[in-house]
Amino acid sequence: MREIEDCRQHADYELAELITACIAMFIFKQGSRNAFNNQRQEHQFKSQYRKLFKLRLPHMDTVDRVLRRLPDEALERLKQRMILALLANKALHRFRFMKRWFVVAIDATGVMSFTQRHCEHCLHRCSKTGKITYFHNVLEAKLITPNGFSISIASEWIENPEGEYDKQDCELKAFKRLAVKLKKCFPRLPICITADGLYPNQGFFEHCRHHDWRYIVTFKDGNLPTVWEEVHALGTITPDAHCTERRIQGHSETVEQLSWINAIDYHSHRLNWVECIETITDRNTGVQTCTRFVHLTDIPIDGACARLISRTGRLRWKIENEGFNSQKNHGYGLQHKFSRGSWQATKNYYQCLQMAHLINQLMVLSTAFQQHLIGKMTLKHLWKSLLGMLTYGELDEHALALLTQRRIQIRFIT
Ligand SMILES: [Zn+2]
Q1: Residue 389 — φ and ψ, nearest 5°?
Q2: Which residue from 108, 154, 169, 236 puts its CA 20 to 30 A from 409's CA?
Q3: With b meaning 16 or more CB within 10 Å and e meaning fewer, what string describes 6-27?
Q4: Within a domain: 384
Q5: What spacing in Å lies between the alpha carbon of 241 and ligand 1's midpoint?
Q6: Residue 381 belongs to what H/E stretch?
Q7: Ligand 1 mean position to 137 CA, how many Å?
Q8: Domain encompassing residue 269
Q9: Which pLDDT value is given to residue 239?
Q10: Structural domain tally of the chain?
């Protein structure tokens, strides 16, 4: 934080104090600047905050004024530095796909919407009744793991340029910019991209090849008709390429029937196709649910890896669940308008939210923390206790100093 260039001449608070306060607002899941200001009014909280962070806690209006001026690249770089530190320490290496690739899910989500134009970059859509809605969406690259991490490693705003334009910005255009950003920041990171049914197209395959990334994308009926034709033609002559996996867990039995076809040519790309039909049977009631998943990948498929590839393709829902859903509905206030007037500040709040979410995930997914989450105990209650402790309890500074001096190892759940 102290490496970030300060845009101010004279300032009471240093930049690190303001950025930390903003990240802390999200760490403590305050949901709004006003809520955190109220918390700050509590004398005990303010003093314990200082013991914890070794920084003063400023009023959130002061934070807001600076976030309106700070270029958003600065905080995105800070976020990426945190991830580079985790990667350098090999903290996430054990969660790599096939012991080689980090799985990066690409997906867009809505952050804000308005009935009136909010800034010149707003996207807009017109409903059937002629009502115009203005909104802002962001395209995220999140590193996801089977045990539940969903870590923002790069963000790209889907936004219209200043002045006149022919067509609005869209997710696929934003993906090109996001891909360049991702490659620039993590040039040698082995990545496997997962994305939804919007992505299987020539442009996407080209980008992945150009950046030397593997991919697993959802393949919907009706997408790339020539590929589907070949799947139907080849499917009948390669009957060996399938397998069935069955497992029983408690009262439910899951059967996965996998089929695959390798080396389908599509505009000089060799695509491999995998289908998984999953049938879950409740052994008490006999009720069955059946779901079909189809993916395209450039990783060659065989009996040993077909299931893993299909499951990794399905990991994508984690960006929805652990990622966007937690940030929207579990205290982070992703869709809250932290700064109504300033688009610049909004982008900066967004990056602080991502850093806070990362810090919280490192704690919540640790085995030490999970011990507190037994039975019907909820995260919401534990957060209330944490805040209660900081507001009414007493932190022992000496004990805290001893803790920070000691090297500790955090183990993650698997
Ligand atoms: Zn706007």
Answers
A1: -60, -40
A2: 154
A3: eeeeeeebbbbbbbbbbbbbbb
A4: no
A5: 50
A6: helix 379-392
A7: 10
A8: 221-304
A9: 62
A10: 1
pLDDT per position as a tens digit, 11-24: 899 999 999 999 99
- Domain-embedded: residue 153: no
Q: Is residue 351 part of a domain?
A: no
Tokens of 202: 């020539």
How many A from CA of 112 to the centre of ligand 1? 8
Ligand 1 centroid – CA 173 distance (Å): 18
Q: Of the ranges 18-22, 235-239, 282-286, which one carries the lowest mean pLDDT score?
A: 235-239
> Is residue 161, in this structure, part of any structural domain at all?
no
CB 79 within 8 A of CB 355: yes
**Residues 218 and 197 sit within 8 Å (Cβ to Cβ):** yes
Distance from residue 338's CA to the centre of ligand 1 (Å): 13
Distance 11 CA to ligand 1 centre (A): 29
Ligand 1 midpoint to CA 160 (Å): 9
CA dihedral 156, 362, 24, 57 (to 10 degrees): -130
Give per-residue pLDDT as tens, 101-137.
999 999 999 998 889 888 889 999 999 999 999 999 9
CA of 105 to the centre of ligand 1 (A): 26
Distance 168 CA to ligand 1 centre (A): 13
CB 200 within 8 Å of CB 111: no
**Angle of helix 343-364 versus helix 72-88 axis, rounded to 10:** 20
- 32 Cα–ligand 1 center, Å: 20
* Burial degree of 317 (CB within 10 A; 0-12, 13-18, 19+): middle
What pLDDT is recorded for position 73? 94
The b-or-e profile of 183-202 (16+ CB within 10 A means b, else e) is bebbeebebbbbbbebbbee
Expressed in angstroms and rounded, the spacing between residue 359 Cα and the centre of ligand 1 is 29
Query: Would the CA dihedral through 308, 312, 318, 323 be positive or negative?
Result: positive
**Which amino acid is present at 254?**
T
CA 3 to chain centroid, in Å, comes to: 26
Q: Is 235 helix (H, G, I), strand (E, B) or coil?
A: helix
